[in-house]
Design goal:
Blueprint lengths: L5 E7 L8 E7 L6 E10 L2 H7 L15 E9 L11 E4 L9 H5 L9 H4 L12 E3 L2 E3 L11 E5 L3 E3 L6 H4 L5 H13 L6 E5 L3 H12 L4 E5 L5 H8 L3 E3 L8 H8 L6 E4 L4 H9 L7 E4 L13 H5 L3 E4 L7 H13 L9 E6 L3 H7 L7 E5 L1
The structure holds nicotinamide-adenine-dinucleotide (NAD), ligand AHE and zinc ion.
Amino acid sequence: TQGQVITCKAAVAWEPNKPLVIEDVQVAPPQAGEVRVKVLYTALCHTDAFTWSGKDPEGLFPCVLGHEAAGIVESVGEGVTEVKAGDHVIPCYQAECRECKFCKSGKTNLCGKVRAATGVGVMMNDRKSRFSINGKPIYHFMGTSTFSQYTVVHDVSVAKIDPVAPLEKVCLLGCGVPTGLGAVWNTAKVEPGSIVAVFGLGTVGLAVAEGAKAAGASRIIGIDIDSKKFDRAKNFGVTEFINPKEHEKPIQQVIVDLTDGGVDYSFECIGNVSVMRAALECCHKGWGTSVIVGVAASGQEISTRPFQLVTGRVWKGTVFGGFKSRSQVPSLVDKYLKKEIKVDEYITHNMTLADINKAFDLMHDGDCLRVVLDM
Ligand code: NAD
Ligand code: AHE
Ligand code: ZN
C-alpha cells in the first residue's frame, strides 16, 4: 500500500453532539515528514468528548477524533528517519521536534513545529487533510485522529516503542495516565512527605494519585462528588476521601482545616473553573502549588484573590504531564513492562470501533475509566 490511498473504516464526527458515524474513509499517503500509522487500539478520553460537544474553540467538523492510541507504521514520507514501516508506535498529540524555541528552552514540553497546523485540523506540508470521503476533506484532530484504522501524523508526533509491549494496553500511554503521573513528577515535582489533594478521581486523577504515592506523598486526599469512586481510588494510592456534597463549608476550607493550613500540592483533574479555584485556595500559604490539568471550554475563566498568590501560592498547568513525548513515552512503556507503573488497572472496558458511540455513553457511567477499542 506504500504510496497508495488506503480506504478504511473511521468514526467520523460530522457535527457537534451528533453520533459518530463509521464511514469508509480515504487516507492519502504520507507526504514529506509524515507517517501513516495503522491504528490497532485506541482509548477514549474526555477531551475527545469535549471537542465533540462543540465547546472546543479549535474544534472543526467534520473530523476524526481520538488521541490516545497505539499502532504500527504502515509507510513513511520523504525525509522521515526516526521511524520505518513495521515499527510499533504511539501517536503524540504533544509533538517534540527538538529544534524549535520551545523544545530548546529546557523549560517546557510544548513544541511549536506543527501546532499551528494541528490546531486547524490539517497537515503542515500543504495545510490540507489526508482524510477524505469521496473527495470531501475530513479534518484531523490534535494531530492524531486515532478513531480511524489508518491515520497520518507528523514524524515529530509519533513515539517508537518496544514491540514487546501489548498495544491493547500501552495505547493508554498516549494521554491520560502519563498526564496524571507527569503532573506530579514533572510539573509539580512532589517531594517525599508532601500532602497532596487531587480533585476528580477519573483516569487522570487516579494517575495523579499513583504518581503521588510513587513520589512518597504522606497523604493523598481524593475529592470527588461521586462517593462510589473512593473504594477503587484506594488501589491507586488515595488515603483519604472527601465528597464536597457532604460538607456545608466550601471544600477548600474543609481541606485547610484537615491539613493544618493547607496542602503542599493540589491537582484539578476535572475541567471545572470553580473547582480550580478551590484547588488553589486549599493550598498552604507560602508554598502550596496547584496544577490545572482539566480542560475548560472557551469563555470559562478562573478567578481568585491576588492575595492568594501574593502570599506564596503558585498556580500552574500541564500538557501531557510535562513529558517530552517522543523522548519519554518509550521509557514510560518500559516502566510499564517492568511493572513500575500501572496501565491495565485503568482499562475498564474493551469494545470495537463499531461500538464507539456506546463506548462514549459508558464514559458517563461512574464505573468507567478507560474503554479500549479494538480497531
Ligand atoms: P473523568 O470524567 O474520567 O474524571 C472526572 C472526575 O471528576 C469524575 O470522577 C467525576 O465524578 C469528578 N467530578 C466531576 N465534577 C466534580 C466536582 N465538581 N468536584 C469533584 N469531582 C468532580 O475525566 P478524565 O479522563 O480523568 O479527564 C479529566 C480532565 O482532564 C478532563 O477535563 C480532560 O479533558 C482533562 N485532560 C487534560 C489533559 C492535559 O494534558 N492537560 C490530558 C488528559 C485529560
Ligand atoms: N483545543 C482545546 C485545547 C484543550 C487542551 O487544553 N488540550 C490539552 C490536551 S487534553 C488531552 O486529553 C492540551 O494539552 N493542549 C495543549 C495544546 O497545545 O493544545 C482548546 O480548548 O482550545
Ligand atoms: Zn486525553
